[in-house]
């Protein structure tokens, strides 16, 4: 088992802390390709970095695009049950570029909180 560190902005951090968000979405870049089921992730609240949240990875699933991921994953697990698919994709492209998506593909990381 390995421990990994990742930043999360306020809203997704709060959703994950409350248990409403159980899937984290990332590019499947070289850092994320090292993740394995059973590993722990220490999420640090960004940008202030004053709070941490530990989770264990329960499943990993790769997709070619964010659209494919969002069409497959129940939006409730992302804490985004009210969002439209297009709004979610547009929000994601404010963080990641389509070039990055094409280069790496994307990853759904199912997690469970660890106390």
Automatic annotation (TrEMBL):
<feature type="domain" description="ASCH">
    <location>
        <begin position="6"/>
        <end position="115"/>
    </location>
</feature>
<dbReference type="InterPro" id="IPR016645">
    <property type="entry name" value="UCP016134"/>
</dbReference>
<dbReference type="InterPro" id="IPR015947">
    <property type="entry name" value="PUA-like_sf"/>
</dbReference>
<dbReference type="InterPro" id="IPR007374">
    <property type="entry name" value="ASCH_domain"/>
</dbReference>
<protein>
    <submittedName>
        <fullName>ASCH domain-containing protein</fullName>
    </submittedName>
</protein>
<dbReference type="Pfam" id="PF04266">
    <property type="entry name" value="ASCH"/>
</dbReference>
